[in-house]
Amino acid sequence: MSRHRVSARLHGPLARLAWFLWYVAVLLIPLFLARQVIEPPDTSAGGAVELSAGLVAFSALVVAVALPARLPWLIAAFGIETVVTVHRLIALVAVVLVLVHFVAVLVVDPRGLSILDLAHTTWAARAAVVSTLALVLVVFLALRRPHRQPRYEGWRLVHNGLVGIVVLTAWLHVWWLRHLVSHLVLAVWFVVSGLVLVGLAARRWIWLPVRAGRFAYVVVSVRAVSGDGVTLVIQADGHRGLPFEAGQFVWLKIGSTPFVFEEHPFSIASTAEHPERMEFTIKALGDFTELLVALRPGRRVFLDGPYGGFTIEGLDDAPGFVFIAAGVGITPLLSMLRTLADRGDQRLAWLIMSARTQYDLMLRPEVSEVRARLKLKVIEVVSAPEPGWIGAVGRIDRVFLDQVLPRRAQQLHYFLCGPTAMVTSVGRDLAELGVPLRRIHTERFGAV
User: Fold this and answer.
1) pLDDT digit string (tens) for 83-128?
2) Among 176, 238, 328, 420, which residue carries the largest CB count within 10 Å?
3) Tens digit of pLDDT for each residue in 409-425?
């Protein structure tokens, strides 16, 4: 049996509400504290805007940096796609607030534009200018990335470096300004905020790689599979394996050290009952796939994880499951099916697999193997079949689902994995068919 279980409460509505309230508090507490301790309060409109925009902008930067820091409970509560989306949104909010703060300072400060003369201004002003320019550059490069399509590792290196400059100079701006930190309560808040950011950075870039080195794996085999994919099998190197939940994912690193910068997230396709042996099936795409194909048995690899709340754990009272996959989205669902089979679970389950042609359907032999050990009905559907196909033709839409779903479908739990467009449309169709949203679990590829 698995040695590591995740309670549904960690990624249920109460967990999401708790995280939301915590982040709202981080955004607004410094503003509240400032209003309480700064006497006499600045009653001018410009002064109020300057103070409010600056404080909330700094808090937004703290939140934006904390969101992608790979906190397991946060990712379990919202999913990696939501975390990344909110991170980008809050970063944009921070930019707007910083610009509002900047304009308000120019209006309120009698020195006007002369504070931008870096040769003769204060260190606080220099830090503010550097932080603002770096932040604008971060957002500009992020918005341009989909159009320019730079190599991801190079873009991420520049992005992280600029973010570090933004946060450090923003913190120094507040500290050197002395206006706020001269008050003990606010000084404590900013010191704690700085320590939290340092702690998150140390955890992300030091502790997690060290942990990955302690729990290294070695390559057992690499083989091509149908649907233009590659299956990688790895074995724990001198340990019992990293416990994970069926449906979770890890970041995979290939290199001589766990501190290697290049890494990619992949869903685990193997059973959670045997974490000492993991399997991944990866769509052949880009240079990283070529690197995978070149791996030889015995080569060490490193894992950061596991992460995610896309899992069957905590659903022991569910009467059955419907798994819906498009393309390589079958991988986390196969992990769930294998785990259910290894546990002897005999609840009814349905698997709907979709692809463009029958030759693009991935891991069909593996699905057939696990099907023999479960009460599983497999439905394959292709949108552009090649000659000889005798299965379903079309797309997974409301009409198709209404035809293939069992009676009392509203009582089942649904797991959807694949491209964003498919997951979104199928989730909407299920809701229109009366399936409660709390029973629809999704994982979207391409968000990270």
Assistant:
1) 888 888 888 888 888 888 888 888 877 776 777 777 778 888 889 8
2) 328
3) 889 999 999 988 899 99
